[in-house]
Write a structure and sequence with these properties.
By secondary structure, this protein is mostly beta strands. 13% of the residues lie in helices and 51% in strands.
Length: 174
């Protein structure tokens, strides 16, 4: 059970690191100097609507941040009245990496206030060969909780380690 818990915890952490890096620098390696901490978003086209507080990046979107790298076909960033990021929506060939972990999906939505991350359409999160996948992966960063529908967990090596095999309890129940 410890390995499955560790895997889920690791996948939650990568999801949180990957998404929160766009909005904050809390997960930046200590070796990065303060003046070098910056997030750069590039695309074929950038549209900003001041009245609606929204930025739309279209075509070959690349987000480079000290904590992550994200690519997609489109990225919509919505801001609140204090110009803090309220939500991010990446769509089309979404791919993100952070350290030894990566995620892929068709669409990713991150709501900064609740810490909720929703990955839809062929969603996969992978770390060191282990992965979780489904049509929908919903992550609650603050609760360290994940929901996957339909859920599939793949553990590297193909078989469950001995410490994960259920041990029969007295009376025949596991």
């Amino acid at each position: 059970m410890r390995r499955i818990f560790f895997l889920y915890s690791s996948l939650l952490i990568v999801s949180g690191v990957v998404i929160s890096g766009v909005c904050a620098t809390e997960n930046v390696p200590e070796s990065v100097e303060d003046d070098a901490i910056q997030t750069v978003i590039t695309s074929d086209q950038l549209e900003f609507d001041y009245k609606r507080s929204i930025s739309i990046f279209t075509g070959n979107v690349v987000v480079d941040d000290p904590a992550l790298h994200l690519t997609s076909d489109r990225l919509v960033v919505m801001f609140d009245s204090t110009n803090q990021v309220r939500s991010l929506t990446a769509s089309g060939n979404v791919h993100l990496t952070s350290e030894d972990r990566e995620g892929r999906c068709d669409r990713l939505v991150y709501l900064t206030l609740s810490g909720e991350i929703v990955m839809t359409g062929n969603a996969v999160i992978t770390r060191a060969g282990d992965s979780v996948s489904g049509d929908l992966i919903k992550i609650w960063r603050g609760d360290e909780r994940m929901e996957v529908k339909p859920g599939r967990l793949t553990i590297h090596g193909g078989t469950m380690p001995a410490d994960l095999v259920p041990v029969p309890r007295p009376g025949g129940r596991q």
